[in-house]
Automatic annotation (TrEMBL):
Coiled coil: none annotated. One of its GO terms (cellular component) is plasma membrane. InterPro entries: ENaC, ENaC_CS. The chain crosses the membrane at residues 87-108, 532-554. It comes from Drosophila yakuba. This is Sodium channel protein Nach. Residues 457-494 are annotated as: Disordered. Belongs to the amiloride-sensitive sodium channel (TC 1.A.6) family.
Amino acid sequence: MPVAMESLDQKPFRLAPGRAAWWIPNPGRVARYPPIATLTSNHLPGTSAEDTRKLSFAAALKDLLQNLSFHCYSKLVESGRRIQERFFWFVFHITALSVLIAFLWGSYTNEQEVLVTTMYHPMYPIWKVEFPAISVCSLNRISQRAAWQYAHNLSGKDPKLRNASYFYDQLKAFMYMYYDPSDLMDIDNALRFQSFLDRFDTGEKDLFFNTRKRMRALTPNCSDMFVSCRIAGRLFNCMDKFETTLTSHGFCCTFNYDGKYVNKRDFRQRYFGPDMGLVLTLKTDPNDNFYKINGHNGYPDPFSGGVAERVAETGFNTLLPVRAKIFETLPEARSMSPSVRKCLFENEMPWIFARHYTFSKCISACRAQSVVSLCECVPFSLPHRYIDGCEKRIYCTLQHLACLKRYEFKWLNVITSRENVTGLEHELQDALYCPLCLASCTETRYSVRGAMTLGLPTPTPSQIKGPARSNPGPRANNSYGPALSSGSGRGPVHGSSSPAELAVVRIYFAETHIQYFRQIIKCAWYETFSTIGNICGIIAGFSLIGICELLFFLAKQLWQACRAELRAELAHIHVQIRTQVAEPETEAEAEAESERPMKLFILP
């Protein structure tokens, strides 16, 4: 039965399908029909080798540009266009692509800052802010009484039976070098005395001179420094709240070391104002002075950041107003790598900082590891958790003094990233490089600004000789006649201290409200995707469908090239096989021909 079918040439142009591979199922099989409009069973479409051949790359690329979803790319190959028009469209597309690349590069550089800081709360109440840790260190780092006692102990161990005065003079000559190695006088005598200590001043379980143990015994006790302590207008026992810890100056007395004063407090306990903060009355004993510090050589120290240092002079009332700012990074940023967000959360290095990471601690740990690596000793003021196997290493003594002085410049200059700065090449090479130390993602930053000192009032004879007050009240820290017992904050002291030997320190928050900042993710993935899509669509007319078409075209051309190469390789292998099979047959025929009897032809 004949089948009527309309010729393809008579179809409207808008319905003519393209020849691209993503519109027709079999791009290599083209149906050829007779020119007549009637098709019978005897004129079915054929599948000759010419029908099944593939398009060349140039023809396929032309077909792609004609049917691509991108705007105006068909103008480059459209028939009937003059060469000037095609050149114009070529320049137009090149310009559009250049502008597109410039915009995308600008977006990429802007997106490198993945976190942005915003104001979360401009008036955050101060009573919700944690109180900072406070360390009180005596400028007299070695007690004279402890030095005399140590001299008597050494005299009893001396085989030469030298008296205590000799050892006291030796201690006075070299012991200060542990705190200030720059004041080096008689190093030979100091090294000889250090050899004596290494031999005769070691414990039963010690293999070397324990500098930390000895320095702790020589440091003035905390109970000898405090007269009274008060916080939020209430007196408390100083020795119950202060504990001995390691600082840049050796062993000191630290308040709020374990963070007990970090929880939210009521309105009264917001520690605002000179009378409602931490008020300390300190005393000094000039007769017990042995050596006063004049430098920094410990961990953590003011050079590592996060530590503010102030000196409270005797005879004065020192006011230290503290201003705080809170910086918090949202937990969603944990999904990013630290190198991208450029900060670390407090629990990301628990094996070193016990879930309390700070930038200051990281710099101190990096410097400490450098000291151990270069000088092969552990400074006595270094916390053990900063160094693996610290208990098996010797503490730094005067034998390591030359090494410590050699690298002093290196440890005072720390960098976390290397950037070439003209004029600082030498410093860049000599500085300590700590690439693992990043800023803290969440922290409370404190600053001491506007500190001032006021002279203490001179007590009158009646105040000195008068009866002790039954209730010291909130002004107990300003009462210097019948002072409180040393370090207890309770009860009178028999005797008195002059204002020249006392110092009052007031540490308090200077503001009732602070600024609270938050770091949030600048752009989510869908926002970045939308930005790129808008730029590509407006400038070059790109779309996701067009990109898929382009990728399909490239993948198809690559597959065809690989398949053609594979077919050529297989054809070459088949030719070699046939050649190898034909060679033995030829050799066999030659051998058979040689075995036949010779034929003689006689020509007339």
